């Protein structure tokens, strides 16, 4: 199952004039496709995005993460309308909120905070857009996972694209499916939801 894995290679499907994002998710060791993430937005939202493309990250969006076309979403990411600070809710396959992300104000390096369903901060995502190297840290500064463009495995050749990266979760996260879902969503949200150039 998707959420039982600890390493994911994410590759954006590149298309001209696209108004929604679609990412394929692979096992980086075997090259097997294990899922995908796709934006789901209505016609009015698409029109706004086309007209005001520079402000893409201000508009609401929904991203569904599925194992295949026939399956229900294992995770759904929902970004609310944002002016100064984005908030993103993460919903599991039972339509239960497992946590949320909030973008940071006045930061040059990028990143956001991770919160549990009660709104308490439980983790931090720190890094930089230019180097595409992000750490997912708990409140004690321990690394829970990493998102970057460095991978030495079988699919290294796929990293010729600027739209490909790896999400790696630490072994300890595997025993907590809710946290694994939240961290996988955080890794995807860096590019799909928060990156203004995405």
Description:
With 198 residues, the chain is mostly beta strands. It has one domain: LURP1-related (Porin), CATH 2.40.160. 14% of the residues lie in helices and 37% in strands. The chain contains two helices and twelve strands; from the N terminus they run βββαβββββββββα. It has a twelve-stranded antiparallel beta barrel with strand order 1-2-3-4-5-6-7-8-9-10-11-12. A hairpin with a 7-residue loop joins β7 and β8 (111-115). The longest helix has 18 residues, at 177-194. The radius of gyration is 16 Å and the shape is globular. The mean pLDDT is 80.
Shape: globular
* CATH-derived topology: Porin
CATH architecture identity: Beta Barrel
Amount of helix: 10-25%
Q: β content, as a range?
A: 35-45%
Low-confidence stretches: none
Tally of structural domains: 1
What does the average pLDDT come to? 80
The helix count comes to 2
Separation, N- and C-terminal Cα atoms: 27 Å
Defining traits:
mainly beta; twelve-stranded antiparallel beta barrel; 198 residues
Present the secondary structure layout.
Blueprint: E1 7-12, E2 22-26, E3 33-39, H1 43-51, E4 61-66, E5 75-79, E6 87-92, E7 97-103, E8 111-115, E9 121-128, E10 133-138, E11 143-148, E12 164-169, H2 177-194
Brief sketch in words of this structure:
This protein is mainly beta.
């Amino acid at each position: 199952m998707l959420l039982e894995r600890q390493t994911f290679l994410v590759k954006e499907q590149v298309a001209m004039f696209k108004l929604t994002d679609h990412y394929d998710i692979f096992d980086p060791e075997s090259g097997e496709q294990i899922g995908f993430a796709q934006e789901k937005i209505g016609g009015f939202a698409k029109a706004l995005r086309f007209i005001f493309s520079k402000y893409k990250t201000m508009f609401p969006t929904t991203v569904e993460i599925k194992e295949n076309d026939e399956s229900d979403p294992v995770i759904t990411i929902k970004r609310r309308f944002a002016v100064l600070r984005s908030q993103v809710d993460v919903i599991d396959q039972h339509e239960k909120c497992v946590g949320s992300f909030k973008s940071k104000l006045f930061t040059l390096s990028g990143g956001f905070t991770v919160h549990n369903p009660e709104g308490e901060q439980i983790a931090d995502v720190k890094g930089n857009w230019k180097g595409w190297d992000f750490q997912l840290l708990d409140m004690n500064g321990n690394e829970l996972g990493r998102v970057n463009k460095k991978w030495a495995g079988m699919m290294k050749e796929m990293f010729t694209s600027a739209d490909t990266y790896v999400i790696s979760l630490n072994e300890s996260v595997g025993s907590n499916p809710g946290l694994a879902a939240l961290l996988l969503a955080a890794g995807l949200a860096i590019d799909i939801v928060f990156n203004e150039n995405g």
